[in-house]
Design brief:
Among the domains are: 1-33; 37-130, no CATH class; 137-163. It is built from six helices and seven strands; from the N terminus they run αβββββββααααα. It has helices spanning 5-27, 133-165, 168-201, 203-258, 261-268, 270-292; strands at residues 37-43, 54-57, 60-70, 76-82, 93-97, 106-110, 124-129. Helix 4 (203-258) crosses helix 5 (261-268).
Amino acid sequence: MKVTKEIKTAILVLVSIALLIWGITFLSGSNIFNSTRKFYVVYPNVEGLTTASSVTINGLVVGKVNKIQLMENGSLQVELLMTDPVDVPKTSKAVMYSPSFLGGKQISLEINYNETNFAQDGDFLEGGNMSGLLDGLGEKADPLIQKLDSVLLNVNKLVESINTTLDEETQKNLQEAIAELNQTMKNANGITSKFDRMVTENESKINNIVNDFGQTSKNLAAFSDDLDKVQLEKLQEILAKFDSAAASLDNMMKDVENGKGNLGKLLKEEQLYQNLEGATKELNELLEDVKLNPRRYINISVFGKSAAPYKGE
């Protein structure tokens, strides 16, 4: 059978139409070659959610938002077109969240993998919202903004009160004080510049003074070392004399202990000790008798008259 050009042209046109229809349905979210399912979710607010927003499970894109429809009670019905043949239980929750700073919102399906009762095409899923990073920042920023407004208000009041308190004379005095302060700073800068120039011009002299001081410190250190040596030698000499005196005292004590010398004999010879003790006793008795009977030992003559002889009692 011979295929004519008309048949070839008709087949090409039909294929082109089929490809066009498939492309349109694919871009709209449908695929005529795959079995797609549609789920519905009702939200009170879908701000940031648009058609073609992704539907994900644990970050994997399994579908997209196909249609958003306003209902009579003001709620919004969102149609989810599932492009992945994943089983979705009826108790799954479609949570709307913000994945990034720049992107809009997406819908994440929270799946209960223990459930075996799966949703069918056209079923409704439970909706929910997850606070994104920007939402949290907005909630935290609100009190900060309020505090900042309060601070700025207080600052404005303070500035107004300062402007009201400072009259023209006070403002003039303040300006003069600031001008004098500027002049003082200029003078201080001039003094600093002169000091820097003086240091620069006399840098060599200053270095010589520092070097001389270093040499003097070395000489003082050497003199201190010599002084320490002299003191050490004197201390050693004194210790040597002390050792010699201690040795002499030790020898003397040994001689006394051995009965040598007068002190040794006095301590060691019993007879000498007794004689000395007897003499001491007799001397005490003599002194007592002189004290009691002085006329026995002393005769006093008045006007050349001879004293009467002593008579014993």
